[in-house]
Amino acid sequence: MQARVERVFLLQMLEQGYQTELLKKIDESLLAKVERLDPPLLLAYLDAHLNEERYYEDWQKIFFELGHIYNKADGHAEKSLPSYTFARQWLQHYGYDLQKRRVTSGELRNKNVWWVTKQ
User: What is the pTM of this model?
Assistant: First the structure.
């Protein structure tokens, strides 16, 4: 009987994805006990690079690699880079803000740049 239950669970994991099925099985009372870990690497990096305008894709890569911020709507195994809205919401949770504008001159002419500020 146990083998049948595990087989069904494993098949669901294959179809729906490991994380999706595992989260369905975890009791909410257990999730409430989990302490959220702050990503100190990203926060330290942001403090060192406040108000630094960069091409938006450069900031997306930094958020993805140092903060593990990704597009949650993406169901692929390889997550995609975060959108401006999602990255901004994440940063605001930690006391930062994300700004953007389109550059009209210079090296980044006609490109979107982002920069991080402290709230």
Answer: 0.63
